[in-house]
Amino acid sequence: MPEHRQTAFHEHETEVRPEEPFAVVRSDDGRWYTVTGPCPTCGARTVFRVAYGVLGASKGRRSPEPLTGAVPVYCQCGYPHPERPPESPDTGCGAFWDVPVPTAGQGGAP
């Protein structure tokens, strides 16, 4: 598990290196995706959950088709980062990046 690097808060887009292990897990009802892995900037493990499709009671509704493309992820490491504004809703270093959603052939949702 990578160690956290103390970096100053800075909102910026970054890229994920291919060797960085991210898990993208679809909920049983298909309405949530949870992405887990190391932040490319500060190195801390981050967990990011995004809604997909229509939320709420699913009675009579089918699960949405599996998500394709990528999930936008924001660092939510929870560590204090210098220069993070007190009014900032972020709980991480300010980094954001895209994580590809695996296809069925890559072990993703069928």
Strand order of the largest sheet: 1-6-5
Number of strands: 6
Q: Output mean pLDDT.
A: 83
The rounded Rg comes to 15 Å
Count up the helices: 0
Through-space gap between termini: 29 Å
- Class inferred from helices and paired strands: mainly beta
Strand fraction equals 25-35%
Order of helices and strands: EEEEEE
List low-pLDDT spans: none
Share of residues in helices:
under 10%
Largest sheet: 3 strands, mixed
Shape: globular
Tell me briefly what this model is:
With 110 residues, the protein is mostly beta strands. The protein has no helices and 6 strands.
Describe the structure.
With 110 residues, this protein is mostly beta strands. The protein is 0% helix and 28% strand. It contains no helices and six strands. A three-stranded mixed beta sheet has the order 1-6-5, with no helix packed on it. The chain is globular and about 50 Å long. The two termini are 29 Å apart.
For the structure shown, list the relevant keywords:
three-stranded antiparallel β-sheet; 110 residues; mainly beta
Helix/strand layout:
Blueprint: E1 12-13, E2 23-26, E3 32-38, E4 45-51, E5 70-74, E6 95-100
Parallel strand pairs: 1-6
Antiparallel strand pairs: 2-3, 3-4, 5-6
